[in-house]
């Protein structure tokens, strides 16, 4: 049985290890350090039979919420769980402006099917552009650059990064 719940606490160490292991093997997911994962406190967690199988981080910025990173463990992919997760978040956050960026084609398909608007970064609201620049600078580290190069050399090529919004007025 699949259970999706909103939690406001850091992930357990073994869950962070599972996520990092899954991300290292996936060309479509950008590397996120153990330190970053351990610091996230607002998220939706997906469990199957009381076992962790994925999550999506929520980041709150004034009148916007950024969805992601969204990661499902390999055994949970291709079963519609990512769509259920995004639908649940969209329903719970129905009165809020949402945005998401991803190079993951699976995420692109989910957001397209749910009616999120794909936008060019230069046409995105100014607030989103400033958030993305701030996040880019925060993620810039030796480890993230190393992992990016390792994936670029050893794994199939990632898709182009796409930007999505769902605005509520």
UniProtKB/TrEMBL annotation:
PROSITE patterns: GNAT
SUPFAM superfamilies, per database record: Acyl-CoA N-acyltransferases (Nat)
Listed CDD domains: NAT_SF
Listed name of the protein: GNAT family N-acetyltransferase
Molecular function (Gene Ontology), one example: acyltransferase activity, transferring groups other than amino-acyl groups
Protein species of origin: Candidatus Dojkabacteria bacterium
Source species taxonomy: Bacteria, Candidatus Dojkabacteria
Pfam families for the chain: Acetyltransf_7 (PF13508)
N-acetyltransferase domain mapped to chain residues: 2-138
Domain of life the protein comes from: Bacteria
């Amino acid at each position: 049985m699949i259970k999706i719940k909103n939690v406001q606490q850091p992930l357990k160490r073994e869950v962070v290890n599972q996520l990092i292991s899954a991300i290292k093997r996936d060309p479509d997911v950008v590397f996120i350090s153990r330190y970053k994962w351990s610091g996230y406190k607002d998220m939706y967690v997906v469990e199957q039979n009381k076992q962790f199988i994925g999550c999506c981080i929520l980041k709150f910025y004034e009148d916007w919420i950024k969805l992601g990173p969204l990661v499902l463990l390999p055994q949970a992919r291709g079963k519609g769980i990512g769509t259920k997760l995004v639908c649940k978040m969209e329903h719970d956050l129905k009165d809020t402006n949402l945005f998401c960026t991803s190079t993951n084609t699976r995420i692109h398909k989910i957001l397209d099917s749910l009616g999120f608007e794909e936008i060019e970064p230069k046409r995105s609201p100014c607030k989103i552009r400033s958030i993305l620049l701030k996040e880019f600078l925060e993620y810039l580290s030796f480890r993230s650059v190393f992992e990016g190069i390792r994936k670029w050399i050893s794994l199939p090529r990632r898709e182009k990064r796409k930007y999505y919004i769902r605005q509520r007025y």
